[in-house]
Write a structure and sequence with these properties.
Blueprint (H helix, E strand, L loop, with lengths): L1 H18 L11 E6 L2 E7 L5 H12 L6 E7 L13 E6 L15 H4 L7 E4 L11 E4 L20 E8 L1 H8 L3 E2 L2 E13 L2
Antiparallel strand pairs: 1-2, 1-9, 2-7, 3-4, 3-9, 4-6, 5-6, 5-7, 8-9
């Protein structure tokens, strides 16, 4: 009789457990859509492995600051003749005449996050190790020289990768191939808006 009474309760508890997400299952990462003059780019932001850098980027997104943004730089094999370590990226930032950046954040190196600079990786531009603000770039092809211990930045700390392109690498490549004066896109490619998709 006791077994009969416990059976429905046990079944209910089992059902509730099965409906719960498993421990250790990764949560849905934020996604953003960048609308540019040349097309859309959808990206995933890795707020789990690069929490500080992701929060910084999403702060600008949520406040609508990238609506006044520009892809202003393209780095290609043919426009970095004096660089011993060559990379291929496009770089974007705010229109500084309309909005100002927040104070810089500390560097989250790839040795800590585990996010390597692969084709389509989003990463923060910087000079010193604690100088990243609103400028970000997207890799075209794998760029290990931008990782921790890479040779592109003289301090060897690399850059803070924080996401990856899911859709729109064709748009990234169009921007990369656009007319430029040295590395400065001429004219810059306007960002029409960056919004969260989730």
């Amino acid at each position: 009789m006791l077994a009969r009474r416990l059976l429905p309760t046990a079944s209910l508890l089992l059902g509730m457990m099965l409906c719960q997400p498993a421990v250790g299952t990764s949560q849905a990462l934020p996604r953003v859509v960048m609308r540019t003059e040349l097309g859309d780019i959808e990206a995933e932001v890795d707020s789990i492995h690069a929490p500080r850098t992701s929060a910084n980027f999403l702060r600008y997104v949520d406040l609508g600051f990238y609506r006044f943004g520009l892809f202003h730089r393209t780095v290609r094999a043919d426009n970095q003749p004096n660089d011993k370590v060559r990379i291929e990226v496009i770089q974007a930032g705010l229109d500084s005449l309309r909005v100002k950046s927040f104070p810089p954040i500390g560097l989250e190196p790839t040795s800590r996050t585990g996010i390597a600079h692969k084709d389509g990786t989003l990463s923060m531009a910087r000079d010193g190790p604690a100088s990243a603000t609103s400028e970000f770039f997207i890799c075209i092809g794998d760029q290990p020289a931008l990782d921790f211990k890479g040779k592109r930045n003289p301090d060897g700390q690399g850059f803070a990768a924080f996401g990856r392109v899911l859709l729109g690498m064709d748009t990234v490549r169009k921007i990369h191939a656009s007319k430029a004066d040295a590395q400065a896109l001429d004219p810059p490619i306007r960002i029409l808006g960056v919004e969260r998709k989730r």
